[in-house]
Amino acid sequence: MRKGQVELITTGTELLLGAVVNTNASWLGQKLTNLGLRVTLQTTVPDGDAISDALTDSMSRHPDIIIISGGLGPTSDDVTRECVAQVCGLKLEYREDAELDLRQRFHDMGKVMTDNNLRQTYAPESSQLLKNEKGTAPGIWIPANDGRPHIFLVPGPPRELYWVYEQEIVPILQRVLSLPEMAVSTFTFFGASESSLAERVDGVLSSSGLEYGYCARIGEVDVRVVGPRQQVDEVLAEVKSLLPDFVCAQNHETLAEYTVNILESNKLVLTTAESCTGGMIATRITDVPGSSAVFKYGFVTYSNEAKVDMLGVDRQLIDSFGVVSEPVVITMAQCALNKSGANIAVAVTGEAGPLASPDSQPVGTVWVAWAMSNGKTYAKCLHYPKLSRGDIRYRVSQEALIGICKLANGMNF
Question: Are 299 and 399 in a shared domain?
């Protein structure tokens, strides 16, 4: 095998109409990369014989493997096996064992098999049928021959595709190909921008000779590295050492998951006091299984009255400094800490918009405070003047969780 190049062809008009998200291509890309193979091209075509042109184009590029998903069912638009046979110059042949398996499956389901299901009992000559325990259409493997790559036909429904790939295709690939031992590792840095992060670590990554890339989302950046395991680990360790001021999780652990895990490992309990985020911070924490070990109380104090009645914030403090202010948010955090008996409290108050309250701060102005049972207190003013209400609330929750992680890790705040 040369480079382990794989091309994916997915069929289905519903994918092109946007009615269904093409999760199969994403899933296969990850799984194949973990095997040391690389997807070099993904093509999506509508139902019908457009598969012929796509396969012809793919074979002209001489990949090592082509995987085609969809079009193996019993209806008239399921023509993948016919198109593939024609392009490869192979005859379709009836497989008695496929019909026996099919009839047995319908019998086990207590259903009557209609005659159109019999089209699933045909496969190109010299091909091997692949079991499908999750559906009626078997997969098909056409082995490489005379310059033709390995071609795998798999069902389109994800649960069927996943089963056929894991149980049938992976053992074949491991048996017939010499697969390199590869690692795909990802570090996620929270609170970083893509440009500033890349400026600090691009030199290390580019000089490593490994494949790498960045992926930015709201308030976080992934650094992905692909290559031999030991070298990947060494490079990512060096990258992490260059970014000591950022909270960092590994292999797609979310910020909320990381927060819960770091609190639990340090035997710390969190409480929240939220105004403009309306419980979003608490929701992100409690979405994580096992969060009950680190989260007991959450206060949603959206109005001034709630801050006074539920937390015990002095009304005169709000009148003197305004509800969106450092003194108020610090008091909110301290009161939440005292009422809950937690080790760490985070509080937020601000203007998420779209309209500012009378006599308040401009939209996008938010104060966040963290208080600890050891007496340490920190506060930070955030400014998001041009973001939507939803984006402001999410970014504030992101900053709140990052601060919790820094305190729990003993990092510089």
Answer: yes
292 and 281: one domain? Answer: yes
Predicted TM-score (pTM) of the model is 0.74
Give the separation between CA 25 and CA 9, rounded to whole angstroms.
8
* Cβ count within 10 A of residue 236: 25
Residue 243: which CATH number?
3.30.70.600
By three-state DSSP, how is residue 21 classified? coil
Alpha-carbon distance of 70 to 156, in angstroms, equals 4
* Residue 242 main-chain phi, psi, to 5 deg: -80, -10
Give the Cα separation of 136 and 396 in Å (integer).
49
Whole-angstrom Cα distance, residue 291 to residue 268? 11
In whole angstroms, what separates CA 299 from the centre of its chain?
A: 30
Number of structural domains found in the chain: 3
Q: Which two tokens stand for residue 286?
A: 């409690």
Please tell me whether residues 266 and 400 are part of one structural domain: yes
What does 73-122 look like in DSSP terms, one character per residue? SSSTT--HHHHHHHHHT--EEE-HHHHHHHHHHHHHHT-PPPGGGGGGGE
Q: Which residues contact 251 (CB under 8 A, 6 or more apart)?
A: 185, 186
Are 89 and 117 found together in one domain? yes
The secondary structure of 142-165 as a DSSP string is: E--BTTBPEEEEE-SSHHHHHHHI
Residue identified by tokens 């509080």 is 347
pLDDT digits (tens, 9 = 90+) for 116-173: 999 999 999 999 999 999 999 999 999 999 889 999 999 999 999 999 999 999 999 9
Same structural domain for residues 198 and 133? no
Range of the domain at 189: 183-253
Q: Cβ distance 246 to 190 under 8 Å?
A: yes
Mapped onto helix, strand or coil, the DSSP state of residue 8 is strand
Examine the domain organization and report whether 129 and 268 are in the same domain: no
105 Cβ partners below 8 Å, 6+ apart? 136
Residues 87 and 18 in one domain: yes
pLDDT digit string (tens) for 224-246?
998 888 899 999 999 999 999 99
CATH code of the domain covering residue 137: 3.40.980.10
